[in-house]
């Protein structure tokens, strides 16, 4: 069978167009233990394409430019400890959207917004 995707990549990956890809990568490393995989620089120091692995998922991202402006997005991430990850995200420069709270479903969930404009919904399944 032909190889149709890189090994250990998921079939669907969020692709973020952000105002500062390098800052977003630093945030993903600090908040989620993200592991940078690839970076393809472009002109004037911008990143044309980058990839960061968070647990079993690859996030793809790039710096905005006139033809591809930054777009705010919402990403949901399951983590082992929502409260610890929420605090790490704040320490990494994110702003709070919602402190972690248990609502009607089985998750305890909070949200933060990073400097690049992405809102990260962080959750832990607690039953």
Automatic annotation (TrEMBL):
Pfam family, one: Glyoxalase
Top-level taxon in the UniProt lineage: Bacteria
Domain VOC intervals: 8-125
Record protein name field: VOC family protein
Source organism of the structure: Chitiniphilus purpureus
Organism taxonomic ancestry: Bacteria, Pseudomonadati, Pseudomonadota, Betaproteobacteria, Neisseriales
